[in-house]
Amino acid sequence: MRTSEAIFAPIGVYDSGIGGLSVLRALREALPAESFVYVADNAHAPYGDRSAAFIETRATHISQFLVGGGVKALVLACNTASVVAAQHLRKLHGLPIVAMEPAIKPATQLTRSKVVLVLATTNTIHSPAVARLCHAYGQEVKVILQPCPGLADQVERGQFQSTRTRRLLDGFIRPGMAAGADTIVLGCTHYAFLAEEIALITGPSVTVVEPSGAIARQLARVLPNTPAPARTAATTYYTSGSAPALSAFLTAIGEPAEPVYTLPATR
Ligand code: DGL
Fold first, then answer.
1. Is the beta carbon of 48 within 6 A of some atom in ligand 1?
2. pLDDT digits 0-9 by tens, 66-79
3. Which atom of ligand 1 is nearest to the CA of 48?
4. Is 10 among the domain residues?
5. Are residues 174 and 217 in the same domain?
6. Which of 78, 174, 175, 213 sits CB 3.0–4.6 Å from 15 for a disulfide?
7. In the Cβ-directed half-sphere of 82, how many Cα atoms lie within 13 Å?
8. 87 CA to middle of ligand 1, Å?
9. Looking at residue 232, what is its pLDDT?
10. Domain count of the chain?
11. Mean pLDDT calculated for residue range 104-119
12. According to DSSP H, which parts of the chain are helical?
């Protein structure tokens, strides 16, 4: 790819499903001149309770699709895929890769009660990355690690306010609050779509840390060049699941109409 083409190449963004759309929104706000290709692995979501080998295989396939298509950087808009596969993808590809991990560091700096509650998938909660963060920043702060099985599924189904979603949130949040948590880390990108429901449970005295703004700043730092703002930026979507369903979801959350394609199957 020539340099001028590389500057205008899109940025690849990937999640197990629709959770990463919360990150994509922040990326587009921070970098309005950039184009994006978003891949939702809806057919295999959620990743939260799947094996590491399965997640690494999916992340490899999707990253190869995006890199083969000419993206200039990759954002893993999924904590689970990041903690399992980021190291492997960095060895495979020679382009900037922005990965996610639960925002435990900023949360331990924000808390006044010295108790932080981390909500994430089972895989993320039990990952070496989270153990490392707790060791580094959890010495003077109690970090409560709460796996949330079933919660990302509710978001995938568009059930942001259903009785089951509220019951799950209650069960995951109230014990941590009873233990004194005044700061909650959303350690799964799907949970950003539940921010209103979470605020109904916590009330205004609890700080909810949602990292998409920090990811956008990190992407801006690692991009080799920024294109001129006058250019027309576009977002293209791919899904391993139903393209009409993703299209309908995008409309429901107020995203502008853009093409949604079916992700080519693994060879
Ligand atoms: N959105 C993902 C995350 O940030 C994964 C949710 C899932 O597929 O279980 O962890």
1. yes
2. 999 999 999 999 99
3. 9
4. yes
5. no
6. 78
7. 26
8. 17
9. 74
10. 2
11. 98
12. 3-8, 21-30, 52-68, 79-92, 104-110, 122-125, 128-137, 151-156, 163-178, 195-202, 212-222, 243-252
> Quick check: CB of 103 below 6 Å from ligand 1?
no
pTM, rounded to two decimals: 0.94
Task: State the pLDDT at residue 211.
Answer: 94
How far is the centre of ligand 1, averaged over its atoms, from the C-alpha of 188 (Å)? 5
Q: How far is the CA of 23 from the centre of ligand 1 (A)?
A: 12
Q: Which two tokens stand for residue 79?
A: 């904590």
Residue among 51, 121, 146 to mutate when testing ligand 1 (max atoms within 8 A of CB): 121
pLDDT tens per residue across span 196-255: 999 999 999 999 999 999 999 999 999 976 655 556 789 999 999 999 999 999 999 888
Task: Give catalytic residues, as residue numbers.
Answer: 78, 188
Q: Is residue 267 part of a domain?
A: no
CA of 189 relative to ligand 1 center, distance in Å: 6
Domain annotation covers residue 51: yes
Question: Are 145 and 200 members of one domain?
Answer: yes
- The residue segments making up the domain with residue 75 are 3-100+213-262
Same domain, 167 and 71: no
Asked if residue 258 belongs to a domain, the reply is yes
Question: What CATH number does residue 111 fall under?
Answer: 3.40.50.1860
